[in-house]
Amino acid sequence: MNTPYEILEVATDATDAEIKQAYLRKVKDNPPDRDQERFQRIHGAYTSIKDEKSRLSYALFTIPAADFDELLDQALHTTQAPQVGPEHFKQLLRAGLGETMPVNAMPHAQKS
After folding, report:
1. What is d(CA 54, CA 76) in angstroms, rounded to the nearest whole number?
2. For the segment 85-100, what is each residue's pLDDT rounded down to a tens digit?
3. For residue 101, pLDDT beyond 90
4. 45 near 4, Cβ under 8 Å?
5. Is the pTM for the entire model greater than 0.70?
6. Which domain holds residue 2?
7. Please, which of 63, 65, 69, 80 could form a disulfide with 1 given CB 3.0 to 4.6 Å?
8. Nearest partner of 49 among 2, 90, 104, 4, judged by Cα
9. Closest by CA position to 62, among listed 43, 49, 77
10. pLDDT tens digit sequence for 38-55
């Protein structure tokens, strides 16, 4: 999902005049009779940030869309591979067994 700033290709600190000029350029390149949906997107972007009050309202009340792929990449990105040794494995086994059995005394299946 693109922000109004991205749709109009203006900086977040653009002036009213710069935003209006970008809007008029986009409308000229994408008139409503050519692609109504695209024109609506451009017009919606312009009305969202056309003046200081609109930009403030947009900044306060618009929740940014989360890019879950990017968040996952950031969460899973590690600079160093985790070091898992035999002691970690034994701790996991003990936790799974509820600390009731020693690791070396695993139950064996009884033969009938």
Report:
1. 38
2. 788 777 777 776 665 5
3. no
4. yes
5. no
6. 1-62
7. 65
8. 4
9. 49
10. 999 999 999 999 999 999
Asked if 50 and 71 sit in the same domain, the reply is: no
Same domain, 1 and 46: yes
CA 41 to chain centroid: 21
Q: Are residues 18 and 31 in the same domain?
A: yes
Task: Say if CB 58 and CB 4 are below 8 A apart.
Answer: yes
Number of folded domains in the chain? 2
Q: Encoding tokens for residue 69?
A: 């792929």
Residues 8 and 46 in one domain: yes
**Residue 34 carries which DSSP code?**
T
- Residue 7 CB: number of other CB atoms within 10 A? 20
pLDDT reported for residue 104: 54
